[in-house]
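ok so dumb question maybe but i'm new to this and my supervisor (M.) told me to 'just get the structure for histidine kinase' and walked off. so i did the thing. is this what she meant?? sequence i used:
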Amino acid sequence: MKNRIKKILFGSITRELLLVNIVSFALVVIGVIIAIGMLYANFDSKDTPDKMIADANSLYVEVGRYVTREDEGSNNYLKQLGKHYGFNAAVTDSRGNIILKTANVNTDKIDVEKVQQIFQGKAYRSNDTFYQIYNVKLGNKDAMLFVWKLPQLNRITNIGKIIVLIGILPVIIVVVLIYILIRRKAKYIKDICRGIETISQGNLDYRIDKKGVDELSILSDKINSMTIDLKNIMEDERKAERLKSELMTNVSHDLRTPLTSLIAYLQLADDDKTSLKDKEKFTEIALQKSNKLKKLIDDLFEYSKLESGAIKLGKEEINIVEIIEQSIGELSILAKKRNITFHKSFSNSIFLKVDPNKIGRVFENVISNAVKYSTEGSTIYIDISQKNDGLIISFENIINEIFEENVEKLFDRFYRTDEARNSEQGGSGLGLAIAKNIIELHGGIIWAEVEQKNFKMNIRLN
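this is what came out, is it supposed to look like this??
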């Protein structure tokens, strides 16, 4: 929820600026309201001359009634009256000596003549201190009551600086907020520019820090994603170039070897000194070499199409057992030569939606390898079982060579074990690579397991 609110408020630079403007306007309005409020609070419309005279007269009446003695009680009551009416008040003798006074009066004597001159000498103005003089009785003695105050209207000038400050302060805050926002965004833009410059110089491992959720944050995120994609593309291109070089090297080697041998046998067969029997022998060997060369070319062509994605599967519902039996039948002559038997653990009918030609090629390659590299006189176990994650087809046999550490390389193109390289039956090194591509096109998995001399090839299809 917090992140959602943050995205709504700060998910756009436009919204951020709008929010700052709204806050700024609100601060200005609040400042103006406070200033006006202070102005009105300090402008007491009741402090007009007529009102002040009426209040002073009311205070005088109350003094005449209840302040009649020169004691503490009368003095306390006078203080209460002064606080209630907002006046300073003092009761003096004829010479101005203060007998009773309110709390705000700090002197012990009033200059009677001066006050009378002020009171009688000129008209009252709003910026003058207001005075009233009354004759009162304090016990049996004549006394004078002095009442005065500074109208609240005059205090406006004393708070002018505060009102100006309150009016200017929101503007200052607005300027500071806008400055902070612009400075932060400008700094982030500089960081993004520096990041782009670093990336453009070839440092594709550099990442721009993502800050916030606005457009600049999205921009930095997209630049980082683009950098990652660019790095992956360049790595893929380098890998493809390296593989292309390796492919050319391997192809030239694997083509040159049988081709050189083929030419040599054909030259021997064409030699007039060669006997007819030897010619037939050399011709037969040349034919074998030609077939091996053709298979290598066919495998290269097939693998190239699989790698380029040019092959489209023609799936149909078929009995997969029939394809396996067909592959076994095609390799039965070679199996008999090596005294190898097959042990089959599966029912007669197991239907899957696959491309029959491509799956047939997979089984042919896997079973062919099992026949070629199994120990003579051994058994190849073929098992099909249904699991929760799909149909598992396994081919298990005993091999002569132990290569547990290189089991993952079996599916690399042109990878061949030492036995395969030294064997007359050694293949192109593309059979399992082709099988892996075909199985993955079907959405399946192929993997090998080796434990000592027990070798097991597994295929999972859905």
